[in-house]
Design brief:
mainly alpha; elongated; DNA-binding
Chain lengths: 218, 218
DNA sequence: GCACGCCCTAAGCGCCCGCTCACCTTCGGC
DNA sequence: GCCGAAGGTGAGCGGGCGCTTAGGGCGTGC
């Protein structure tokens, strides 16, 4: 694999699946620009400039500016769904799987904040068809989390009054990390993940969430 | 007061303080447009059109499009701060005040979703000075919530491991309501407020949050 | 009854947007 | 060494943007 699929942390290199190289550089530039300024405030000239190309080069690899956003959104949502699905289908109790899901989901939103910001907050800039495709992926994310909580209720581990509302709140809490998290802030993605896993276990009524929590880094 | 300061619910009519009438209509139109499409995707022609005026009329009352956003943001944040301050300085235990703060804050984000969306998500479109002013208001909101949680910890009602992190998460949870809430959805603002008050009490470690919860409307 | 000041409009300026087009370079295959 | 495809560039088009300006109704004071 010449495109460096694996990083030191064992994580798959993001955007590794996008080829050729020029198309990937444009896409990465677009993610940065969209995250900083928002889709509508970003110009195609800015994207091309960040990728070290002329404005016209963008249109060799992408039909429109919206196609860039669509591709980013789909890849990002597939990654998010993958994270939640892996945690949901893992071994362990519902409490462990929920903590794992929230922890890794939050780590992704904090660590890959630029991508997450675009993925979670620029949805409305897509046209109706593209939007519908992405919304379907989001519903599958919701179903994964709801499944874990249902398991916990069935097993008597959790105590929730409103299954759908609680699921919505848990996902909402995680997603909003992309809005406020800053690399210059006092917390690492791991720390936020651990904090949020604990908070979510409390939300679903686990008695002693701190008994064997995910370890904070410091 | 000829401008209908009070509504049936006893709530102050929003934007009642904005005069003259034409300026208020333009501001309300801008709130709707910004909430629907985002600040950058909204044109001054669209705002003026919604207010039933020509594009030039906007500039009689506002110097720039950004001044509209600034005014909306300041008024909205002052309202949000007022809601939290009222709850924080009320009577009752820390649990009751926290439930009250979260409940009313969430009701505002759901019931006045268009305003809240602009206020919470279009901050980055402001210039540096205006942005700094709004950020200061946000910090005061944070301080109000943190104060209640501190009180609860001191009184032995709450059990939190990370005061600042928990405060951040509580506010984040409430704010994100503006992103997902829909008037076409199955929940009323009151119901979401009650649900969230319960979830937040659980997050801070209150043992039996449902013992005397805020009543749902139905 | 008429001059004045307050709102508002029609028209349009200068700019920059998304996107296109004609042309140029590079490079592997034979 | 020539050729065509792939991938790039410079210039620029049509249009919509934020905002300005000259001037028109119209209620009000006297």
């Amino acid at each position: 694999m010449s495109t460096a699929e694996e990083t030191a942390g064992g994580e798959i290199e993001p955007w590794g699946e996008v080829t050729p190289d020029a198309a990937r550089r444009l896409l990465v530039a677009a993610v940065e620009a969209f995250a900083e300024r928002g889709y509508h405030a970003t110009t195609t000239r800015d994207i091309a400039g960040r990728a070290g190309m002329s404005p016209a080069a963008l249109y060799i690899h992408y039909k429109t500016k919206e196609e860039l956003l669509h591709r980013i959104s789909r890849i990002g949502h597939e990654k998010a769904l993958d994270i939640l699905r892996t945690a949901a289908r893992g071994e362990g109790s519902a409490s462990e799987r929920l903590a794992d899901a929230v922890g890794s989901f939050v780590r992704w939103h904090a660590g890959r904040r630029t991508t997450a910001r675009v993925v979670q907050y620029e949805l409305d800039a897509l046209g109706p068809e593209a939007r519908a495709e992405i919304v379907a992926l989001r519903r599958r994310c919701d179903a994964e989390v709801r499944g874990i909580i249902e398991d916990g209720v069935a097993a008597g581990e959790f105590e929730v009054l409103d299954l759908k509302g609680t699921t919505l709140a848990v996902l909402s809490l995680c997603i909003d990390v992309a809005r406020w998290f800053s690399v210059h802030g006092p917390r690492t993605p791991d720390e936020v993940g651990a904090l949020y896993a604990d908070l979510v276990l409390r939300m679903v009524g686990v008695k002693r969430p701190g008994a064997a929590p995910m370890q904070s880094q410091k």
